[in-house]
Specification:
Number of domains: 1
Order of helices and strands: HHHHHHHHHHHHHHH
Number of helices: 15
Number of strands: 0
Oligomer: single chain
Largest sheet: none
Distance between the termini: 11 Å
Shape: globular
Structural class: mainly alpha
Radius of gyration: 19 Å
Amino acid sequence: MRLYYAFVTGIAGWVGVSFYNFKSTNDLSAARSILILALLFLSWGINQIVNDYLGLKEDKINAPHRPMVTGELNQRAAMIVTAVLLCIITVITWFLNPWALIPAIVGILLNVVYEYAKAYSLLANIVFGVMISMCTVYGFLAAGPLLDPVFTTNRFTVVAMVAILNGLMTYYTYFKDYLGDKKAGKETFIVKYGLNVGRYVGIVGAFVSAIALLFFMVIDWLPANTVLYMEEFIFCCVVTLFLQCWTAQLYFSNPTGDKTYYSLAINIRACVAGQIALIAIFNGTLALYLLVISYIMIGLLFNQYKDARA
């Protein structure tokens, strides 16, 4: 399940839950919150089986030691278990709020589309980003009855920021998959334009989310006066930018080899920190706790997966 990635979907969903909690007059029970967050944290691993199954061709080169590639994990059995789990999630979601089925289904479908989108340069990054942003929408809708209005510019901004952060995160992951993607005919941006261009674009990419956030604030889609915890928000944003620059530097220095795998830990932390910054808008204390816990836990979980070829 590669659980170090679970914080990506989990925190993305937590953003939606936090926004709902702030805007709703309904009390969100602890049991409901825990259930939603458990579904979101585990959703990465469940969908990862589908992704691994569809990406077997390139994984035979990029990650030849993965259980599904080696045959240690039975493909048919894994897909059956995944289908059953998705059905269970669908039923639970129906009882939480039927409207939340929309982002859940869209997210599952985009996971399938993502594998084929890798043949079209940056399209895969866009698809991936939108797919993870469905976790934010899911968390918001599953938290309780629909709010009126459902759509606002600041909510769109938050969903868009989650998509941008995750699109950028997956861009860097393509360095480690370069050889397999190239041989499998997956024309990602890095395959199409080469490692040298890719690593320079990665340096520029480190500033994309910061520029996007400033843009949304300038056009007043995320008004500064709606940020209730400005100091915590700025702190989380600075940490995010630092981690994104660190990520870009790591892949610029080592665009190939096993180090591209070990650089994932900082890459994932950067993405998660950016999502936590959005939680800081309405709950600064929670954001700081999550920032520390996520940073530590991603590292601990990542260190359990010591094989760069798996």
